[in-house]
């Protein structure tokens, strides 16, 4: 039984594309009974049913991409997410099924384990006046050169003033959470997840002077596509794509909403960075 008189309302979401998820969901459904009020289960990536069921926690079964999808889908109705890794790396999905069962009662009562993290609001305005993608991203918005992979030219404005022009393979705009994703591979800085900032990292810039930049989270960023390829695309969280054409503008800023992440009570802040990405360890 949970160490509180009132059982917390829990919803379980599982990635339907992962064949191991139904078995894990059935196991946790049986486990949660009596420890919390299970208000629903779905093999789905959308959190709307959990919002409608007035859930206080969502257990998410899948990989990091599953967690990102659920967080985006909650939009302005964020609910603390407990990520259970039914995948490979599991950087954000910190719990195994066994670990969740071990720590479940503590997660239900210890509010200090819930952290709020920055999300980005992205709006793409096409040069012809049509509205492109408008929505949230948890990790990053990546403007990728795309086929035929010629150099693109992007004009970057910060708070209404020209910051720079980037010529290269594109640009990453990411949150602190996303600093360990595509940004890390591109040589961008690693940020603690609770730092309120936004990172701009050029992709293979055709320049010796362009370097990643960290700006205040309240900054308003506009990227104008001066020269792009037929396949140039804005990609949100590696999952949602929107074509970018010459003259289009990609507006990015901090969302008024923050997604809520339940951290592992037995793992220090840099645990996954050191153990899974081998940060700071000597080469073998």
How would you classify the quaternary structure? single chain
Span of the ends, CA to CA = 46 Å
- Helical content band: 10-25%
| CATH level-two architecture of the largest domain | Sandwich
CATH topology of the largest domain: Tumour Suppressor Smad4
Number of helices: 6
Mean pLDDT: 93
CATH class of the largest domain: Mainly Beta
In spatial order, strands of the major sheet run: 6-5-16-13-8-9
* Rg measurement, Å: 20 Å
Summing up helix and strand content along with how strands pair, one would put the structural category as alpha+beta
Give a short synopsis of this structure:
By secondary structure, the protein is an alpha+beta fold. The chain has helices spanning 21-32, 48-52, 64-74, 97-109, 182-185, 271-275, and strands at 9-14, 37-43, 57-62, 81-85, 114-125, 131-137, 140-144, 152-158, 161-168, 170-174, 197-203, 213-216, 220-227, 233-236, 240-243, 249-262.
